[in-house]
Amino acid sequence: MSVATDRLVAWFDEQARELPWRAPGTSAWGVLVSEVMLQQTPVARVAPIWTEWMDRWPRPSALAAESPGTVLRAWGKLGYPRRALRLHAAAASIAGEHGDVVPSDVDDLVALPGIGSYTARAVAAFGYGRRVPVVDTNVRRVVTRAVRGVADAGAPSTARDLSDVADLLPGGAEAARFSAALMELGAVLCTARSPRCGECPISDGCSWLRAGRPANSSPSRPVQGFAGTDRQVRGLLLDVLRHRPAPVPRPRLDAVWADSGQRDRCLDSLLADGLVEQTADGRFALPGEG
Question: Residue 220 pLDDT > 90, yes or no?
């Protein structure tokens, strides 16, 4: 398999979005924070929060010293707040077991609390310039179209996907830049619904384009809504606690959602996830603030 490495990287160097975690001098810690925040969350929402976090907590030990409740407040509206607790736990491990320096080895990164294979590989590549394949949805789409000539990558296969991208990686420090360029291409040009093939730097070698851009043969996946879901209710409950300096009584939480069964289920799940604590007198607070 092959992709025009030089042209893709040159395009990236000229056209890549100016994202704060791409700035020269960004530490591996900054890369790790960005990767956790970017999971299932748009770049536009992440960028200002990431900047605030790095100003406030430039090292893992600084974040680790905070209470989980403080971290959840700072997480704000990024969604999926368990990520904040996982990042807090990873920071404590880095500070205590790695001398406050984010590990550069993929296996050491995966051993951190809450850090999965993708995040570990992204930190090794973008934080340390390691030659390791980094595969997200955008990368899978680009490789599937450019190399395999089909519109949709189908179900993920970790071993196959990593092998496919590893085969494309150039040698040395250029590998990390190439990986970032693949991601950017999938994010801004080779998109799922409206690919802009006329602007693509590797279009002349794209198997999918040469085949006439055949349509996806697999059924489209339904897009999950947000309104009325448990995710929305959990977020509303957390908002009450984030905006109160002290534990709140149950009626304050009951007021945010009329469906008592769903509300109770969501509150129970927040307690089980460690995102909320109940005090001895029956009130509710963010973890570490009861």
Answer: no
pLDDT at 252 over 70: yes
d(CA 188, CA 196): 8
Could you tell me the pTM of the whole model?
0.90
Contact 242, 273 (CB under 8 A): no
Backbone phi and psi for residue 186, each to the nearest 5 degrees, phi listed first: -70, -30
Q: Which of 14, 18, 35, 277 is catalytic?
A: 35
Q: Which residue has the higher pLDDT, 217 or 174?
A: 174
- At the fourth CATH level, the homologous superfamily of domain 5-128 is Hypothetical protein; domain 2 (1.10.340.30)
* Strand-pair partners of 278: 284
Structure tokens at 194: 């409206």
- Catalytic residue at 14? no
The answer to whether 50 and 34 are in contact (CB under 8 A) is: yes
| pLDDT (mean) for 139-145 | 94
Instruction: Name the one residue in this structure whose structure tokens are 């299932």.
Output: 40
Q: What share of the chain is helix, strand, coil (3-state, %, to 5)?
A: 55, 0, 40
